[in-house]
Specification:
Elements: H1 2-29, H2 33-46, H3 51-63, H4 67-80, H5 85-98, H6 101-114, H7 119-131, H8 135-148, H9 153-165, H10 169-182, H11 187-199, H12 203-216, H13 221-233, H14 237-250, H15 255-265, H16 270-283, H17 288-300, H18 304-317, H19 323-338, H20 342-355, H21 360-372, H22 376-389, H23 394-406, H24 410-423, H25 428-440, H26 444-457, H27 462-474, H28 478-491, H29 496-508, H30 512-525, H31 530-542, H32 546-559, H33 564-576, H34 580-593, H35 598-610, H36 614-627, H37 632-644, H38 648-661, H39 666-678, H40 683-693, H41 702-714, H42 718-731, H43 736-748, H44 752-769, H45 772-785
Organism: Cycloclasticus zancles 78-ME
Protein name: TPR repeat protein
Pfam families: TPR_11, TPR_16, TPR_19
Length: about 775
């Protein structure tokens, strides 16, 4: 009795599962996929080991392209029912797709054991052999399938593909034409035929086939677009335009098709494109996509004023606060910035952010404004908000990296650039920065990899190629360097970049005589190309051809009197040999020829300083400043010279002028703060110096850190100053003034031993530097301690 109940229950469960499966298949036939899925799952609830229910769900996974789930279910079906040939063959097809042809053939053989003439197994075997490039064997197997089932569409398609691969396109096309007659609505067959026709450049036949497909499928957008691309490829603009017009007519209420037509004709018929857009907008007054397309077209036609009018219209239609109004206001703010109306731009951006506090475009524009104004901290904050919502915003990451660089956070900048490369390995700014950092750390292999990836997308980019060439030179990859040089020379036999790289390659190989001749060729074509002149000088010095170099420079200067780099190189040669008068003569000659050569004044002044001719050096700087009164470099150099000669008031006045022009010049800030602290000390000046040097507290430059800390010492903020000065001395232990400042701090703290240690170190270093003023200060302090 128990056995009978068990059998009865089992039969009932199987019957119920079968009923659910049948119901699911009926629902599928009606296109009710989700409901069918529920029925198949119901079948599994009743009968978990129902191979057919699992198989039906696998087919649904196939339809959804959910390959991972499909594979798992098919594997389960085969385990439950080793004779379920449909599942076994489907699994084999997945193996072919993944490239595992050995397992695919194993699946086919499982079916052959019981049904040696199984068409599906023959097709699977043929597909696997095709993947293995065994085209003849593949053709044999597919022919077997067709001999059994001549009208099999899959086998016919596969045979056409194999024949085409064997170089028999006409036979392939004949089979496809015959097969399409059996199943004219099968798009995959038509696409395959179109592919082979395109390979044979049979464009007329392709056009005819596309037109037939359009007639049968008038709403299939991709067919129209493919035909347009075919016409465009042949330069048949009118035919392509007519096809797009037919597409618009077939879908009159679809914005996307209208925009396709407008974008296609705007290059050749921009006014017609604009007229079309106006017509479309008249028909649909509140279509913002069409209106923004009109804005883009007006900008393309350089009609900025009309574009602005349209943007303002969008803000009115969208009630000033909607998504489209926000987009329009951000664009209007951009135009305000172009017109130097920053206040108006900020007002628009802030109004957008009031409505939408995390609007990406508004925050991005605001960050750009802040970066232009050197307000790096708020810019960083706004850029980080964007990345919180859109971590893959490439433009934001690059801007953030630049903001970090400007705020001396190089490590954070590098991290942002690396994130950029993860998103887009071809980003030029990121690739150049990261590769140069890798080159600095001698990680040449990774630098080359970064540059190679970027060049995959931009193979002609000169900056990337130039950095790659530098990397290959450092790796001593002579062949790789030569390949890049030859690439430039193939494009243009007179390419300065190619000739120069060839010269650098010879120099790197220590073939200096050949390098010198190569550099001369570059200079014959482009005398103003300074790196070639510098390379020639280096190679000449390396092989002790100083006199020959000087002779060449005389000749070069005679032919190119305004190429001031030649004067600078010649003067440096004389300077190195302590032939100061000759160096000064060369520089004076250069300045007489090119009075605006501002670096020449600095170079000439340095020669006079070496000769202790301070008055002459001062006059040289003054001459330069008479020509360029706002030149900060000359002003700072002259101020520094005044300092060295105890003319502190003149130095102070010059530093103040520099900072009035540009308040961010760190050497001027540092030197003026030092003067205010040491030479013009007062409570007011110490407060000014403290404010000026606040930005130095996180600096990596010991001199700036020292100035910041020394101001604190003078303000008796010893506990704050101590760790900073200790860090300064640890970074640069052999600088007299650093040890002196730390010694003074310890003396103020009555840490006598530490004070004496650093003051004695400062005394020894001051003797080496022959700084009599510092020596006397230290001696006075040491005597007071003793």
């Amino acid at each position: 009795m128990v056995a009978m109940v068990s059998v009865s229950a089992c039969g009932s469960a199987k019957d119920s599962a079968a009923a659910y499966i049948e119901s699911g298949q009926e629902l599928l036939a009606d296109g009710k996929i989700d409901k069918a899925r529920v029925e198949f799952k119901n079948a599994l609830q009743i009968e978990p080991k129902s191979a057919e229910a699992h198989y039906q769900l696998a087919l649904l996974d196939e339809n959804a392209k959910n390959w991972k789930s499909m594979f798992a279910r098919l594997t389960r079906v085969e385990a439950l029912d080793p004779k379920h040939y449909e599942a076994i063959l489907k699994l084999g097809q997945l193996y072919v797709m993944s490239g595992d042809t050995t397992l695919a053939l194993e699946q086919a053989n499982k079916v052959f054991k019981d049904t040696p003439k199984n068409t599906g197994a023959l097709i699977l075997k043929s597909s696997a052999l095709f993947k293995q490039d065994k085209y003849v064997e593949s053709l044999t197997e597919v022919n077997k399938a067709l001999s059994i089932e001549p009208s099999n569409i899959e086998a016919s398609s596969l045979k056409a593909v194999v024949l085409n691969k064997l170089g028999k396109p006409q036979e392939a096309l004949a089979i496809l034409t015959k097969t399409i007659k059996l199943k004219p609505d099968d798009l995959s067959l038509n696409i395959l035929k179109l592919t082979i026709l395109e390979q044979q450049q049979k464009y007329n036949e392709m056009e005819y086939l596309y037109e037939q497909l359009i007639a049968k499928n008038p709403t299939q957008k991709w067919i129209y677009i493919s035909l347009v691309q075919l016409f465009d490829k042949q330069g048949k603009y009118l035919e392509a335009k007519e096809t797009l017009e037919a597409l618009v007519a077939s879908q009159p209420n679809t914005e996307e098709t209208k925009l396709f037509l407008v974008s296609y004709i705007q290059d050749k018929e921009p006014n017609k494109a604009l007229a079309l857009l106006n017509d479309y907008i008249t028909s649909d007054n509140e279509s913002f996509e069409l209106r923004f397309s009109k804005v883009d077209l007006l900008l393309y036609l350089n009609k900025k004023d009309e574009a602005i009018v349209e943007l303002k219209k969008i803000t009115e239609l969208d009630n000033e606060t909607g998504e489209y109004a926000n987009k329009a206001n951000v664009m209007l703010a951009y135009f305000d910035l172009q017109n130097n109306q920053q206040k108006a731009a900020l007002n628009k951006i802030n109004s957008v952010l009031e409505n939408s506090p995390e609007n990406e475009n508004a925050l991005l524009t605001l960050a750009k404004i802040e970066l232009n104004n050197n307000n790096f901290d708020p810019a960083i904050t706004h850029l980080r908000i964007i990345l919180r919502n859109n971590p893959e915003s490439e433009e934001t990451l690059v801007l953030l990296a630049q903001a970090y660089l400007n705020s001396d956070s190089e490590e954070l900048a590098e991290d942002s650039f690396r994130q950029t490369l993860t998103i887009n390995p071809s980003n030029k700014a990121a690739a150049l920065f990261v590769s140069k950092k890798l080159i600095e750390s001698n990680d040449l292999e990774r630098a080359e990899l970064v540059l190679t990836k970027a060049l995959n997308a931009k193979p002609e980019d000169d900056d990337l190629l130039d950095t790659l060439a530098q990397t290959k030179l450092l790796k001593k990859d002579w062949l790789g360097t030569e390949t890049i040089a030859n690439k430039w020379l193939e494009d243009n036999e007179n390419s300065v970049k190619g000739l120069y790289l060839s010269a650098r390659l010879l120099q790197a190989q220590e073939k200096h005589l050949d390098a010198i001749e190569a550099y001369k060729k570059v200079l014959e074509k482009t005398p103003e190309f300074i790196p070639a002149l510098q390379g020639l000088a280096f190679s000449s010095i390396e092989i002790n051809q100083k006199n020959e170099l000087l002779t060449f420079l005389d000749s070069f200067i005679e032919s190119n009197p305004r190429q001031v780099a030649a004067y600078a190189i010649q003067a440096n040669i004389y300077k190195r040999d302590k032939q100061f008068d000759e160096a000064a003569t060369v520089l004076n000659k250069g300045l007489k020829t090119e009075a605006q050569w501002l670096q020449g004044y600095s170079a000439l002044a340095s020669i006079y300083i070496l000769q202790q001719q301070i008055d002459k050096a001062v006059n040289v700087y003054k001459t330069g400043l008479n020509l360029a009164p706002d030149n900060n470099e000359l002003s700072i150099r002259l101020a520094s010279l005044y300092e060295q000669n105890n003319e502190f008031s003149k130095a102070k006045a010059l530093y103040e002028e520099v900072l009035e022009r540009d308040s961010n010049i760190e050497p001027a800030i540092n030197n003026l703060a030092s003067l205010l602290t040491d030479q013009f000390r007062s409570e007011e000046n110490l407060n000014i110096a403290s404010t000026m040097t606040e930005a130095f507290k996180d600096s990596k430059q010991p001199h700036y850190l020292d100035t910041y800390a020394w101001v604190l010492v003078q303000q008796e903020q010893l506990n704050i100053a101590q760790p900073v000065l200790e860090r300064v001395v640890s970074l640069s232990p052999n600088v007299a003034v650093f040890n002196y400042h730390l010694g003074v701090l310890y003396a103020k703290q009555k840490a006598w031993e530490d004070a004496r240690t650093h003051l004695e170190a400062a005394l020894g270093l001051s003797h080496e530097e022959r700084d009599q003023l510092m020596i006397q200060k230290i001696k006075d302090l040491l005597s007071s301690i003793e």
